[in-house]
Amino acid sequence: MKYLDEYRDPVLARALLAELGGLATEPWTLMEVCGGQTHTLVRQGIDEMLPAGMRMIHGPGCPVCVTPLQTIDRALAIAARPDVVFTSFGDMLRVPGSETDLLSVKAAGGDVRVVYSPLEAVRIALAEPDRQVVFFAVGFETTAPANAMAVLEAHRLGLDNFSMLASHVLVPPAMTAILESEHNEVQGFLAAGHVCAVMGWREYEPLATEFGTPIVVTGFEPLDLLEGIVMAVRQLEEGRCEVENQYVRAVRREGNTAAQDAIGEVFDVATRHWRGIGPIPDSGLALAERYADYDAERRFGVGDLNATEDPRCIAGRILQGGALPTDCAAYGTECTPRRPLGAPMVSTEGTCSAYHLAGRTAAPQTSPAGRNT
Q1: CA-CA distance, 35 to 216, in Å (whole number)?
Q2: Which of 110, 193, 260, 336 has the most CB atoms lying inside 10 A of its own CB?
């Protein structure tokens, strides 16, 4: 398959690692801001093959993981209603709420359906006018255009039985919060290629300048990530702080302007609560007032539902790069993919899931040979 095998070439991977070893003179610390990138780094062991002292910190790059517990509980309350068809992407079904998850609601008789596009939910609403159809709209900027189009299509069709439980989050404000933290250790970022395919990278340029932090837009295959790391380290070594694009086959500086227009029409920027982290100003998207009729929180009156995180779960620290999954006392014992305490253990982009699938049982230590093991 084009752009798959070509970006997994072990000979080229070794060459990039050798280039990195000859380039780095300091123990730089980088953060990837995408759960898909985290899984590649961990599954391929790239984070363990970096030069001595160099670290990859795993950031809040899993939109499922940062969806707050209270939003999950609101989804569960709506999904349990007998008059509702609750639709969602499959990665949300096993994310634990306070007491249960969507898959259990489905097993108990709730009409919970997996869809592969929000427009499928619109078609269900059109076909079943006597049922209330709700779509669980979770994600970064990547999924926002399709969700916006679903609202626009429902509006065009005049559907009064379609609504959306929106929990969109934005990447640049999260990066800003990390850089402003007194505990920040990040010296450079690998930005998520799929987000930048929609939004471009112009909004990252002020961040790179203000905080003196290199940002490299990077793809998801092993060679993408290795080249992105090399590009970021080269900037650090040369004292530069720019936005560079490694993912040239998919990303342009201006992004997809038609997709941005759809987002701007349907959503407004709003403060969003991040699971385990708390509220970050202007870090999310909420349905604009002109589309308030499609807001499921308002329609079903669940906006006041709140929840308290399980104290055994340290997802907040993990999502901010302050801890590794293996630092959690519940990791692999009380918290497993079959019985997760938090979303990072069950999401396909979660850091805990990546570590568990890779068989990681202890935090990486520096070996006498000078490599991370």
Answers
A1: 16
A2: 193
User: Please, what's the b/e burial string for 191-214 (b: 16 or more CB within 10 A of its CB; e: otherwise)?
Assistant: bbbbbbbbbbbebbeebbeebebb
- Distance separating alpha carbons of residues 224 and 212, to the nearest angstrom: 23
Tokens of 84: 């509702």
Residue located via tokens 């402003």: 180
Handedness of CA 360, 363, 367, 372 (dihedral sign): positive
Mean pLDDT of 119-141: 97
What's the pLDDT at 43? 94
Do residues 55 and 29 make contact, with C-beta atoms less than 8 angstroms apart? yes
Rounded Cα distance, 352 and 336, in Å: 9
Domains in the chain: ranges and CATH: 1-313 (3.40.50.11740)
State the CB neighbour count (10 A cutoff) for residue 1: 5
